[in-house]
Amino acid sequence: MKVFLQGNEACVQGALKAGCQFYAGYPITPSSEIMEKMVRVLPEHQGVFVQMEDEIGSIAAMIGAVWAGAKAMTATSGPGLALMLENIGYAIMTETPCVIVDVQRAGPSTGQATKPASGDVMTARWGAPGDYESIALSPWSVQEMYEFTIRAFNLAETYRMPVFLLADEAVAHLKEKVGLKKNINIVQRAKKSEQPPFGETAGNLPTSMPAFGQGRKISVTGSTHDEWGYRRTQVPAAHEKLVNRFCNKIRKNVEQIVEWETYEDQDAEILIVAYGFTARSALAAVRLARAKGEKVGLLRLKTLWPFPEKVFSGIGPKVKKIVVPEMNQGQIVLEVSRFYRGSVIYYNKTNGQVITPQEILDCIM
Amino acid sequence: MNNNLNKYIRPEVFPTPFCRGCGHGILMGSILRAIDELKLDIDQMVFVSGIGCAAWIPSPHFAADTLHTTHGRPVAFATGIKLFNPKLKVVVISGDGDLSAIGGNHLIHAARRNIDLTVICANNNIYGMTGGQMAPTTPTGARVSTAPDGSTEPAFDLCKLVWGAGSESDSYIARTTVFHARELIKYIKKALTHQGFSFLEAVSPCFTQFGRRNQAETPARMILDLKKMSVRAKKADELFKFKEKRKILIGEFK
Question: Are residue A275 and residue A314 in the same domain, yes or no?
């Protein structure tokens, strides 16, 4: 079924499709349409909506609801994400599946509340103190606001961790035709399990997510714990095992998580690497360059974290240089440079305006 | 300890982490006695705590679902649990620093919403676990590690704070001390069975951090002093008339 939706509305549709039953949030531009839509539609889906006193409370209530058995989500923007970081760490430590939508706006701080940016890429990777791996998806269209929200829920359930939908204001407020899907795989939580709540199963995956109220007497803590949830803060091996597990469940499954696509890359001598709304301008720049006979291609990142290292270390000598346009002062370009040893040019724009095809073209020519 | 209560405690958690003379053991026993006397199904209860000594009362002691959260946030976590599964009886047990300093915002908004949670605040007037720093509940003049010559700040009256935040609702608000153990059990039972928000402040001495800096002779004497310092409220509205320094007004205020 095709419908005409705004990016934020499509995100809500995706969440419902994925089985979201709980939303806690705090108003913040440019994400507020998500909560305003959620408050209307969640009750029709036997879900619960609450507007909390701040973003700290929002993510805390969301995590609480997940332990009570819900699939849950919250949405925010940079200043709210800053407040959520302590409990993002808690969700990582307690292996709580949940989805955090960050509709990025120009920062730091209050910045430009209504203008797009990609400034939170590294915050999504490193924002919470401590050691862990992160998952962040980067939609470039309203269709992907829908599809990636569903995927974010599925990844959250599979790896039992918070997953970021790292949108930007331009995609979130864009209106486009969206194909809502009937048959789409939804990862369901095990009804009941006797596995230890914080253990490991085959494929470096975590044991199934339990719920309160089933008589399992679950001990959940943000402190270092063993597989049964008991505090083991004085045991070096316990902490090492825990942190290694948080990292390995992603590192050993990178191939299942990372997604990207290419355009006109077969004979490309110049490769543009882009993500989010910027990738739309990058694709337009590729078309303009090809019209002039230039061998330019696009590599579009659908997932930012984990970073697709192998893609970049495997780029052949045909490519003479990589161009990375970003709506920040250079974040993903740092990762590109880490794994691609050739020439990397970056183009950064941080004035709250989207990057135009002509600007990218000017970098190439 | 009453052997009948052992079933509520995880056998592997002993010895208890609490210091000698800490009042939290009395509070913990009182909570379990209240649950036992009310014949509540502990498998349909969730105990949520923050960070600090009091947070260790339920986690990991209680053989139940326990959520040991980040500092100051237990009330917000509990809100999410209760909203999604209202059948669960959700109880927050945490300290004065956790609930009224870093977590003050969540506490007042839960009171305002009159959400059906029970919040039990173990008030020892100090940050115990981190080494005896000043709390919003530290009495003016009391010596703490971050006010070695005595606190110059006024202290929160937590019951007044919660009363003010939820003044439009019929929440339950009470305060007593661990010296008054029978009354403590009675108040906990009332809080647990109250429909809507309930807040119980349990004054509990910290000899290790507070007592030794403030001329307390022994842990036992600190507990006996609670009796001397306590003034019983005959009417609920005495909460707003009470002006005596260094005294604790105990009773039910709402």
Answer: yes
Residues of B in contact with A63 (CB under 8 A): 77, 80
The question of ipTM being above 0.95 is answered as yes
Q: B44: which chain A residues are within 8 Å (Cβ-Cβ)?
A: 213
Of A53, A62, A89, nearest to B106 by CB-CB distance is: A53
CB contacts < 8 Å between A and B, how many?
125
B98 in Cβ contact with B51 (< 8 Å): yes
Chain B residues with CB under 8 Å of a chain A CB are 10, 12, 43-44, 46, 48, 59-60, 63-70, 73, 76-81, 83-85, 87-88, 105-106, 109
- In angstroms, what separates the C-alpha of A210 from chain B's closest C-alpha? 11
A269 and A251 part of one domain = no
Q: How far apart are CA A168 and CA B68, in angstroms?
A: 34
**Domains of chain B, earliest start first:** 18-252 (3.40.50.970)
Are residues A47 and A7 part of one domain?
yes
Range of the domain at A158: 1-257
Interface of A to B at Cβ within 8 Å reads 21-22, 24, 48, 50, 52-54, 56-57, 60-70, 72, 86-87, 89-90, 212-223, 229-231
Which chain A residue lies closest to B79 (C-alpha atoms)? A61
Residues A160 and A45 in one domain: yes
Choose one of A237, A257, A277: the last residue of a domain.
A257
**Contact between B208 and B216 (Cβ < 8 Å):** no
Residues A71 and A109 in one domain: yes
Q: What is the CATH number of the domain that holds A268?
A: 3.40.50.920
Q: Which residues contact A23 (CB under 8 A, 6 or more apart)?
A: A15, A35, A38, A39, A42, A47, A48, A49, A50, A62, A72, A73, A74
Return per-residue pLDDT of chain B as tens, 254 residues. 567 899 999 998 888 899 999 999 999 999 999 999 999 999 999 999 999 999 999 999 999 999 999 999 999 999 999 999 999 999 999 999 999 999 999 999 999 999 999 999 999 999 999 999 999 999 999 999 999 999 999 999 999 999 999 977 889 999 999 999 999 999 999 999 999 999 999 999 999 999 999 999 999 999 999 999 999 999 999 999 998 988 999 999 99
Do A120 and A269 share a domain, yes or no? no
Phi, psi angles (nearest 5°) of residue B85: -130, 85
pTM of the model: 0.97
Is residue B45 exposed (0-12), middle (13-18) or buried (19+ Cβ within 10 Å)?
Answer: buried
Helix (H) or strand (E) holding B77: helix B74-84
Judged by CB atoms closer than 8 Å, whether chains meet at A64 and B88 is answered as no
Choose one of A242, A257, A272: the last residue of a domain: A257
CATH number at A241 reads 3.40.50.970
Co-location of A174 and A225 in the same domain? yes
A287 shares a domain with A250: no
CB contact under 8 A, A60 and B48: no
Residue B40 C-alpha, separation from nearest chain A C-alpha, in angstroms? 13
Look at residues A75, A58, A39 and name the one whose alpha carbon lies nearest to residue A166. Answer: A75
Residue of A nearest to B64 (CA): A217
